[in-house]
Amino acid sequence: MKSFRKELWFNVPSRRAFINITPQVDECLRESGVMEGLVLVNAMHITASVFINDDESGLHHDYEVWLEKLAPHEPVSQYRHNGYEDNADAHLKRQVMGREVVVAITDGKLDFGTWEQIFYGEFDGGRKKRVLVKIIGE
Ligand code: ZN
Asked: Which residues place a Cβ less than 5 A from the ion ligand 1?
């Protein structure tokens, strides 16, 4: 069995953003040489997400509005977690959008459903953060 591990680094200047990381995951898959197996992609920070959905700007706007309704950033004083930090909302948003995705690898390709793409969700940007890509298979 082959095994491949790589960290993708991000430094998003804004507090929040959604980034399509499918091309980077594809590149990892090519580097791994795996034709049949699984790829795990997970955020290595508790204020960021990895999720799968459509690469459609209206939908990303809708996520932003919906997440701000669920866990508004301001006022930061509404959260007990906020003291030294001001990122309680980012922890909550991460919980809703998820930590990781797993995608099947078939014939050397990411075996997606219709319109599926992999995204990095940043909820507390302005610093360097990592995403782990782990690939196993033959
Ligand atoms: Zn925190």
From this structure: 85, 87
CA of 20 to the centre of ligand 1 (A): 24
Q: Answer whether 0.85 is exceeded by the pTM.
A: yes
Q: From ligand 1's centre to the CA of 113, what distance in Å?
A: 34
> Does position 8 have pLDDT exceeding 90, yes or no?
yes
The string of pLDDT tens digits covering residues 38-58 is 999 999 999 999 999 999 999
Q: How far is CA 99 from CA 4, 39, 40, 93, 109, in A?
A: 20, 14, 11, 11, 22
Q: What is the pLDDT of residue 84?
A: 84
Please choose, from the candidates 10, 96, 23, the residue with its C-alpha nearest in 3D space to the C-alpha of residue 55.
Answer: 23
Q: What domains lie within the chain, and their CATH numbers?
A: 2-137 (2.60.120.460)
Measuring CA to CA, which residue among 128, 96, 73, 14 is closest to residue 81?
73
Cβ atoms 125, 24 nearer than 8 A: no
